[in-house]
Design a protein that fits this description.
alpha+beta; D-amino Acid Aminotransferase, Chain A, domain 1; 5-stranded antiparallel sheet; 6 helices; 14 strands; globular; binds uridine-5'-diphosphate
Amino acid sequence: MSRRKILYEGKAKILYEGPEPGTLVQYFKDDATAYNAEKKAVIDGKGALNNRLSEFFMRGLTAIGVPNHFIKRLNMREQLIRQVEIIPLEVIVRNFAAGSLGKRLGIEEGTQLPRPIVEFCYKDDSLGDPLVSEEHIIAFGWASQQDLDDMVALALRVNDFLSGVMLAVGIRLVDFKIEIGRVWDGDYQRLIVADEISPDSCRLWDIETGRKLDKDVFRRDLGDLADAYTEVARRLGVLPKGGNGENPRPRLVN
Ligand code: UDP
């Protein structure tokens, strides 16, 4: 790893310079953080699981024509991706009330929303990623009205795809976050899905039991996070039966 140049290191991933211009290597760490990194742990096996799961979802999106950054998986923890210019917004789609929406509006967790709701948060850890309106986004130049329309359309397509994939394996997609980036084909700009799609950035509940299979397990100390992610991967057929293949049995090491 040391031979490659680190371009960016975040809480759960590292981006290295890629082998060709316009590409990057995305490395998935085992680190878990919550509450703006106030709570931290290393979860053995999480990086490998998220690498596989993000690959699975991005490949599915490619198959239905939703453009995204995934090129190919390189190894257990790394994938080759297209370099994008990240739009500094978290795009959140909600199908059921949970987390900050429940708190902000006093809606009981688990209430089905009348339609999917798309929200934008400004990506700035020092401000705690505040919720922003389309007015803010345009006034401060983070994205244009056309970008916003494209982002909403992309987010809703991702929502329909992910909701269906999850429903098929008995999991409810409560909400999720994506990040979107710009790429250029000559003078022509396009927006594509970037970053990752994994249980770190979704709320996933077992439909039968309500068991949480996402990062809330870590946020709220509800059990073993790697067990929950392994269950999602196993149901989706991303792992061979009985384990994740590359790690005998993920366990909490820190
Ligand atoms: N989310 C995320 N990263 C963030 C904030 C939110 O991946 O920095 C995801 C979160 O996992 C959930 C959805 O976005 O699936 C909505 O999160 P919410 O606004 O309810 O915030 P939270 O309760 O997670 O603070």
